[in-house]
Amino acid sequence: MNQEDRLESISQALSIPRVGRHIFLCADQTTPKCAPREVTHELWAHLKARLKETGLASAPPAWSGKPGVEPSPVEPGRGSVLRSKVDCLRICEQGAICVVYPEGTWYANLDREALDRVIDQHLVGGRPVDELVFATTGKSR
User: Fold this and answer.
1) In a designed cystine with 51, which of 2, 16, 57, 86 is the match (CB 3.0 to 4.6 A)?
2) Cβ(74)–Cβ(13) under 8 Å?
3) Do the domain assignments include residue 4?
4) What residues make up the domain containing 88?
5) What are the tens digits of pLDDT across the range 78-91?
């Protein structure tokens, strides 16, 4: 499999062509400012587990990220949400912080319960959790 086909396979396994939302969580920061690293690291683990449990996220192929491993065919994923752990979202207050795209909805003061509300109401239901939102891309509050 050439490099282009390899990336296409990973993209398909992760459901990238079918994804409707992408959540970025400030977690496991190099220099924690908005929330303790232990807290954001635990939230990241919780987000990964919940997205897997609900079937919202698809897993990459076992050979992804291992350039020396010969790829094998994989089934396309069925997930609808991508997740990314970021070192910093540059707010640096009232964390943990996350943003959900394509809406560009920013959330603050996340703990496990609040993150579950974002997952259930916004990622699954398509409705932002208004009382947790502090900014929306392209709109002022």
Assistant:
1) 57
2) yes
3) no
4) 20-57+81-136
5) 999 999 999 999 99
